[in-house]
Design a protein that fits this description.
Layout lengths: L5 H11 L3 E5 L3 H14 L3 E5 L1 H7 L1 H12 L6 E8 L2 H9 L4 E5 L5 H17 L3 E5 L21 H10 L4 E3 L17 H11 L3 E3 L7 H9 L2 E6 L1 H17 L6 H23 L6
Parallel strand pairs: 1-2, 1-8, 2-3, 3-4, 4-5, 5-6, 7-8
The structure holds 1,3-dihydroxyacetonephosphate.
């Protein structure tokens, strides 16, 4: 059984300055491809799930599928709920035994976000889980959650207080990255990231990983980004995988060959990121 807590995966990553990929799985094909990739590359892995995906499959189906696949491998794997603005959905996942949740209170006032995040932290502690916090909305909509624009920045002192006093375990800082495909290269606030890490010594989470260069990833990881989120690239690989296969073999009616090919595409994608993030061989 190698299902572990998020800190068991991120503490060493933060300390040794490598990144752990957190992929937004959507089903059994993606989950299996990602977990097999981690096992082959000896890399730790975070499987994260959007609220939309939770509603599609159900909290328990995802948890059971994850547990069953993860317990067959020997690398550490953890199950995380991505961007959840609804405390009720977070509660359901925590009660079902998910390992961590991102409570996304970025649409709330500072005070209300602080209060609700601290409550989720207490709830999570009861099941041995932990919480990622978010104060300022990351630009771009992630599976129906979020907005096109980045939220207004707050004084860094407010962010530091939020990080130190809500009880969160890791934090999604507003550093100019965005969900989805970039239309132009983002202007990244490296300095702000550095200040937050220096002040709090908390593992940081990179949102909007798709489309960043290896150099950008590595610079952010060196500054203390331990969890690196990838969603759009996985969705693209998945959809392109089906499309290309079916276009190439329009009269072959062999579902297992089709999904096997897509699963291999997902595996290759994940292994490429493990290399870039420096997590290959760390498990
Ligand atoms: P991308 O969709 O840009 O890869 O971002 C993923 C993410 O940050 C999930 O929260």
């Amino acid at each position: 059984m190698t299902v572990v807590s998020l800190p068991e995966i991120l503490d060493p990553a933060f300390e040794q300055r490598y990144g752990v990929a957190a992929f937004n799985a959507v089903d059994d094909i993606t989950m299996d491809g990602l977990i097999k990739a981690a096992e082959e590359s000896r890399s730790p892995l975070i499987i994260q799930i959007s609220v939309k995906t939770v509603h599609f499959w159900g909290v328990d189906v995802i948890k059971d599928m994850f547990t069953d696949m993860a317990r067959r491998v020997s690398v550490p794997v953890t199950l995380h709920l991505d961007h959840c603005p609804d405390p009720e959905v977070a509660r359901q996942c925590l009660e079902a035994g998910w390992n961590s949740v991102l409570f996304d209170g970025s649409k709330l006032s500072y005070e209300e976000n602080f209060r609700q995040t601290a409550e989720i932290v207490k709830m999570a502690a009861q099941t041995g889980a932990c919480v990622e916090g978010e104060l300022v909305a990351v630009a771009g909509v992630e599976d129906g959650v979020g907005s096109d624009e980045e939220g207004a920045l707050l004084p860094i002192e407010d962010e530091i207080t939020f990080i130190r006093e809500t009880g969160i375990y890791c934090y999604a800082p507003p550093i100019g990255t965005a969900h989805g495909f970039y239309k132009a290269a983002p202007s990244i606030r490296y300095e702000r990231l550095q200040q937050l890490v220096e002040a709090t010594q908390m593992p940081m989470v990179l949102h909007g990983g798709t489309g960043l260069s290896p150099e950008v990833f590595q610079r952010l990881i060196a500054l203390g980004t331990a969890k690196v989120n990838i969603s759009t690239d996985l969705k693209k690989t998945y959809a392109d995988g089906f499309r290309t296969y079916l276009e190439e073999k329009p009269t072959e009616y062999n579902p297992l060959k089709l999904i096997g090919s897509v699963r291999d595409d997902v595996k290759r994608l994940a292994q490429g990121y493990f290399k870039i993030f420096g997590s290959e061989g760390k498990a």
